[in-house]
Design brief:
The protein is mostly beta strands and about 270 residues long. About 10% of the residues lie in helices and about 30% in strands. The protein has one domain: Cupredoxins -  blue copper proteins (Immunoglobulin-like). It has two helices and 13 strands, in the order E-E-H-H-E-E-E-E-E-E-E-E-E-E-E. The strands form three sheets. Strands 4-3-6-11-9-8 form a six-stranded mixed sheet, covered by helices on one side. The protein is elongated, with a radius of gyration of 21 Å.
């Protein structure tokens, strides 16, 4: 039994379990998103009530999101995350983002053109894979971290993926029918990152999927099959804004969950 593919929003999906036992559930899109439903006979009392499981889920969310290594809690200031714990306790593993971006900026500037160097950076989703006695778990923050920014005309903004599991898009204007591939006005930089130029808030620009490379498959040589190929997936998207204005953008996969942003371009 499974839900229809690519269900968006929060539709109801009801399953009845007439026979006791352990029933594994999984998401066919995200292979590490799984769990077990333990069904007891009606004569056996449940070990806990629903409030207990809600509390355990809240603790799990806190543990996954509260990760202090290389964290920058100030990045979370503009993120609205209702129904979670205090924002003061949230830190996100960004892998020393400022240092990595600064190093990347120097390398890009020293390559073919100084115009490659972005003036501002936005994290396009952040994710983490955690191991537990029950298996692997993944956490994805489906937000543009510091997604509302101000720049000057002529500046370039770079969006970078920090999620090992979840794809995202950076989409300005109309949502395309083909969500997987970049729009025709997107080009590729020498380092493999994608690039576009926007001249007006009414322009349509779509990054396509920004997605990290798939995990290597154990026991098979590198490049022996598509799942063990070199990292061909673009993880950076750069946009140069030539004129002042307010430019709204979104991830077409997760905008219904609040993954939207805005670039204000000043003269």
């Amino acid at each position: 039994m499974t839900t229809p593919p690519t269900v968006r929003g929060q539709p109801d999906f009801t399953v009845n379990f007439p026979v006791p036992g352990n029933y594994k559930i999984q998401c066919l899109v995200h292979t590490t998103m799984n769990g077990v439903v333990q069904v007891l006979a009606p004569s056996i009392a449940l070990p806990h009530d629903q409030a207990f499981y809600d509390q355990e889920a809240a603790k799990e969310i806190r543990d996954l999101l509260t990760d202090g290594d290389h964290a920058m809690s100030s990045d979370m200031a503009d993120i609205n995350m209702p129904h979670t714990h205090s924002m003061d306790s949230i830190t996100i593993r960004v892998l020393a983002t400022n240092q990595r971006f600064s190093e990347g900026r120097r390398k890009l500037s020293a390559s073919s053109s100084s115009a490659l160097s972005p003036a501002a950076h936005v994290a396009a989703g952040i994710g983490e894979i955690a191991s537990t006695p029950g298996g692997l778990q993944t956490n994805s923050l489906v937000r543009f971290v510091k997604g509302k920014i101000e720049i000057h005309e002529g500046d370039t903004v770079e969006w970078s993926s920090f999620d090992p599991q979840e794809p995202h898009t950076i989409t300005f204007g109309q949502e395309p029918q083909d969500m997987f591939d970049p729009s025709p006005n997107v080009t590729k930089d020498p380092d493999g990152g994608l690039r576009a130029v926007i001249n007006s808030p009414s322009d349509n620009v779509h990054s396509g999927f920004i997605l990290q490379a798939l995990d290597d498959q154990p026991g098979t040589p590198v490049n022996s099959n598509p799942n063990n190929s070199i990292a061909l997936n673009p993880t950076h998207f750069r946009v140069t804004f030539t004129r002042p204005g307010t430019y709204n953008y979104k991830c077409v996969l997760h905008d219904n969950l609040g993954m939207v942003g805005q670039v204000v371009v000043l003269p």
